[in-house]
Request: fold
Amino acid sequence: MNTRLWISALGASALLALGGCSGYGPSNQQIGTVGGAVVGGAVGNAIGNGNAFGTVGGAAAGALIGNEVGRRSDQRNYNNSYYPNNGPHY
Reply:
């Protein structure tokens, strides 16, 4: 039961975070951060046997990794002129 509660809380947090990314839509960096946090939290929860420290640590590590992957994707798309006028600017 406790595991379901954590997964539900992570899912709700992900929806709220993506809902706050209005404008032109979320960038790959924002999607990567939220997606990484959700997946990392689920993996941390599974590895830590439902331990809150494992869940939070996994979510933090996943968010950092997802952020970096998404940022590099945005950078690559910007350099290839995928974003003509409205994308992230580096």
Remarks:
- The CA atoms of residues 43 and 77 lie 29 Å apart.
